[in-house]
Specification:
Blueprint: H1 7-20, E1 26-27, H2 32-35, E2 43-48, E3 53-57, E4 63-64, H3 69-81, H4 102-106, H5 117-128, H6 133-148, E5 154-155, H7 157-166, H8 168-179, H9 187-198, E6 200-202, H10 204-210, H11 212-215, H12 230-243, H13 249-256, E7 260-262, E8 267-272, E9 276-281, E10 284-285, H14 292-305
Antiparallel strand pairs: 1-10, 2-3, 2-9, 4-6, 5-6, 7-8, 8-9
The protein binds glutamine.
């Protein structure tokens, strides 16, 4: 699959193209810790099934992974309660903004999927599962470090604090779901977990490493042990494909053709099962809150490599 491809040259060219782009989107400013990030950053990292790593641009600069963390949190929650989770969160695309509240009323407090904020807040509630918020946060951090085989990954406390201070909408979502009986813990505690997982700070290299289990049918490439079953990995990939970019998921799939999960920090984690785990970062967002150049870079990469889950070579 990867034979004959000069990935380092392809990534170098993409990074050079992205450096020339003037229309870079707009950096998220509703979270204080994100507002000051320089929109000129661009990084990309690709880890292949054989373990080789290829990078270009700012692949070693940490950024706030934000909603990309919803993939790792979902994986933990499924490990805890299995398919029971789907009683409390759906697995349908929402077609709505990431922080939308509108569908919750008609759907009795059951969020459409685990990748919109409401769904991720329910997932945080499941991870909390009777323990203290600091313990749940520690579990998410340890799990992410384990996936990436990298103990240096940390949580940016300032970003988490800023989210708490400005997270009125998330507070509303949490309390609204609690009113429907779809939250077991106090909204403050659940959101402490949610805000801290969103504030995970990672580089493209670390993120691509963390996504390897989704490339490898659920197995951790360094240990050979299953993080999740192959079926569960397939389903997480399916959710990323359908819901990973909110109301921009169709557009991303149309252009890139890979399961992907975006965050308002400008990162995207994408997976080509059996072939590659990829991470890209450019802080400027489009009007749906997804990285503008991140999607463009992945689109170029998909063309250059022929990688896609929709017409595998
Ligand atoms: N922490 C952000 C929020 O809740 C995450 C949103 C995102 O990355 N789309 O608003």
């Amino acid at each position: 699959m990867t034979g004959g491809l000069d990935l380092d040259a392809i990534l170098g060219e993409i990074a050079a193209d992205m450096a020339r782009e003037e229309d870079r989107g707009k950096v998220a400013d509703y979270i204080p810790g994100l507002a000051g990030v320089d929109p000129r950053h661009f990084g990309i990292a690709v880890v292949l099934a054989d373990g080789s790593m290829h990078v270009a641009g700012d692949a070693d600069v940490p950024f706030s992974i934000q909603s990309i963390s919803k993939v790792f949190a979902l994986t933990i929650a499924l490990g805890k309660v299995g398919d029971q989770l789907w009683r409390r969160v759906g697995h349908e695309p929402s077609g709505s903004a990431f922080n939308s509240i509108v569908q919750l009323e008609a759907e009795h407090g059951i969020p459409r999927n685990p990748f919109i904020n409401a769904g991720a807040i329910v997932v945080s509630d499941v991870i909390l599962g009777g323990s203290r918020p600091t313990e749940a946060i520690g579990e998410i951090l340890r799990f992410t470090r384990h996936l990436a085989s990298d103990e240096s990954i940390r949580i940016d406390e300032d970003v988490a604090k800023g989210e708490k201070e400005t997270g009125f909408r998330n507070m509303a979502l949490a309390n609204y779901m609690r009113a429907f009986g779809n939250l077991d813990h106090a909204a403050e505690d659940v959101l402490q977990v949610y805000f801290n997982q969103c504030a995970l700070s990672m580089t493209c290299r670390q993120l691509a490493m963390a996504g390897r289990y989704l490339m490898a049918g659920g197995a951790h490439p360094d240990t050979g042990h299953n993080v999740v079953s192959a079926l569960r990995a397939r389903r997480i990939n399916a959710l990323m494909m359908m819901c990973g970019h909110y109301d921009g998921s169709g557009e991303f799939s149309f252009r890139v053709g890979m399961p992907g999960k975006s965050g308002v920090g400008g990162g995207i984690l994408a997976v080509v099962p059996g072939i590659a785990s990829l991470a890209v970062w450019s802080p400027g967002l489009n009007d749906r809150g997804n990285s503008q150049l991140g999607a463009l870079a992945l689109q170029q990469l998909a063309v250059a490599t022929g990688w896609s889950v929709l017409n595998p070579r």
